[in-house]
Write a structure and sequence with these properties.
The protein has ten helices and three strands. It is mostly helical and 223 residues long. The protein has one domain: Arp2/3 complex 21 kDa subunit ARPC3, CATH 1.10.1760.20. A three-stranded antiparallel sheet has the order 1-3-2. The radius of gyration is 17 Å and the shape is globular. The termini are far apart.
Length: 223
């Protein structure tokens, strides 16, 4: 989900822009595009996946003018390409949404935080737990990262959006609707988890080498 129209106070817009810019600077410092330059096949997959997510974001539900509900796919992008490339993709997608008139420029920072940064942080933590604490098992990776991780990231992004509206909302009706919307967040989690888990399972079966966070020798060959 993402913000379509501003119902946030100016200080919240500035804060989310600063957070987003800070993360973008961190991503630039990591220079993830070097992998794309050195691997043309990866470059094609990443660009194709980014374009596919842009198209999927057009399938959205909008019960109110200021908030749209849609699949995010940040978890899948982070698992397949790792967080830096996933965040680069998310920034490009959000900019594309602005350019085609779906969202407002002022909300770019908030949307990057809600749809990119928070889900990437959540799945990063989940992946670290799987990588370091849990058994080396294909199904553990698939279900914990793909399904549970996507559901948890959706919850994190949704709660972040609700928190922004409740703490910095300028419209009393929007604040009320956000509080009501928070009750339905658990109903939105299964859809993102199912799609992410299904696509991840297909990749792990046919092209496990495409999933950057997955070690096929560790999780498959050594079993």
């Amino acid at each position: 989900m993402s913000f379509a129209q501003s119902v946030l106070a100016p200080w919240a817009l500035v804060l989310t822009w600063l957070v987003s810019l800070g993360v973008i600077v961190w991503v630039i410092w990591l220079r993830p595009w070097q992998m794309l330059v050195n691997d043309v096949a990866l470059q094609h997959r990443w660009l194709a996946a980014t374009l596919a997510v842009v198209l999927m974001w057009q399938l959205r539900a909008q019960a109110v003018d200021w908030l749209t509900l849609h699949l995010v796919f940040t978890v899948l992008m982070a698992l397949v390409f790792k967080a830096p490339l996933a965040l680069m993709s998310n920034v490009m997608i959000n900019v594309a949404m602005v350019l085609i008139g779906r969202n407002n420029w002022a909300l770019l920072g908030a949307n990057i935080v809600v749809t990119g940064i928070v889900p990437a942080v959540v799945i990063g933590i989940v992946w670290r737990v799987v990588d370091r604490r849990l058994p080396d098992n294909l199904m553990v990776f698939l279900f914990v990262c793909g399904f549970f991780g996507a559901a948890l990231a959706t919850l994190g992004g949704g709660l972040t959006a609700v928190l922004l509206i409740v703490t910095a909302g300028t419209d009393p009706e929007a604040i009320y609707l956000a509080q009501e919307y928070a009750r339905f967040l658990p109903l939105l989690m299964p859809s993102e988890a199912f799609i992410t888990g299904m696509l991840l399972s297909i990749l792990l079966v046919y092209h496990p080498n495409w999933v950057a966070t997955f070690n096929d020798h560790r999780y498959i060959d050594s079993q």
